[in-house]
């Protein structure tokens, strides 16, 4: 059963999709900033937060999970905001249910498959996690890639509590994902792409690729010095653009 938090409200529905090894709580800055203007629904993606996983899966599976939640709630039309992994799912949602997604915002993400060399490096990290556990060195690496200089002490506590085999399973879904670059032209909804110039996971070119290919893409929003988990690490910089975009199109 997919876990979610419906923050309520009578405004347009906006689905919030979190990053790798996070959960729906990472969008607390957005809930605080404009939760009174929209009905924000934060979903714990498969294997994250309070949503279980029972075997290998793809981000297409997660997109179907999101559709099931919206069906359960009786919601036909909705906007999507996805950060990093959430962006992978958001792009697939816009392809899976184009008649239902009113607008899409993608932060610190990519439409391409993982670079093979990076994928192997991440698999090596997963192997170390399985054999040695979440050592300080491993957690430092993960935190640096994902949140840059932001204080990650609370997140590190959560990471230490994760079952080792779960991390390996989630990591494999990440690094083995298919690319959707050649399908971006099918995305019919208005799309906003935001990317940090200090993103340690994906270069700005990945964001430019999406903007160039999606027919109704807004101009790329670059956040100077922004880290990978942009909606969390640089909320003050991204929230005005998100609010303006969602107000116009959600």
TrEMBL record:
Peptidase S33 tripeptidyl aminopeptidase-like C-terminal domain segment(s): 189-247
Domain AB hydrolase-1: 12-112
InterPro entries: AB_hydrolase_1, AB_hydrolase_fold, AB_hydrolase_sf, Pept_S33_TAP-like_C
A GO CC annotation given for this chain: membrane
A molecular function GO annotation: monoacylglycerol lipase activity
GO biological process, one term: acylglycerol catabolic process
One Pfam family here: Abhydrolase_1
Name of the molecule in the record: Pimeloyl-ACP methyl ester carboxylesterase
Lineage, broadest ranks: Bacteria, Bacillati, Actinomycetota, Actinomycetes, Pseudonocardiales
């Amino acid at each position: 059963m997919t876990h979610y938090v419906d923050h309520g409200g009578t405004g347009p529905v906006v689905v919030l999709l979190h990053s790798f090894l996070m959960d729906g709580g990472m969008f607390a800055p957005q809930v605080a900033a404009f939760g009174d203007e929209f009905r924000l629904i934060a979903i714990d993606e498969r294997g994250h937060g309070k949503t279980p996983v029972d075997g290998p899966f793809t981000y297409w599976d997660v997109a179907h999970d999101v559709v099931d939640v919206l069906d359960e709630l009786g919601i036909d039309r909705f906007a999507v905001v996805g950060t990093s992994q959430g962006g992978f799912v958001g792009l697939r949602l816009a392809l899976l249910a184009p008649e239902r997604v009113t607008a899409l915002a993608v932060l610190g993400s990519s439409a391409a498959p993982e670079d093979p060399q990076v994928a192997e490096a991440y698999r090596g990290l997963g192997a170390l996690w399985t054999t040695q556990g979440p050592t300080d060195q491993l957690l430092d690496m993960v935190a640096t890639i994902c949140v840059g200089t932001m204080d990650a002490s609370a997140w590190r506590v959560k990471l230490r509590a994760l079952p080792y085999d779960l991390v390996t399973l989630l990591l494999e879904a990440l690094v083995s994902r298919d690319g959707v670059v050649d399908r971006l032209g099918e995305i019919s909804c208005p799309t906003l792409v935001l990317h940090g110039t200090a993103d340690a996971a994906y270069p700005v070119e990945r964001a430019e690729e999406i903007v160039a290919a999606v027919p109704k893409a807004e101009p790329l929003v670059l956040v100077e010095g922004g880290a990978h988990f942009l909606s969390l690490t640089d909320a003050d910089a991204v929230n005005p653009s998100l609010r303006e975009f969602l107000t116009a199109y959600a």
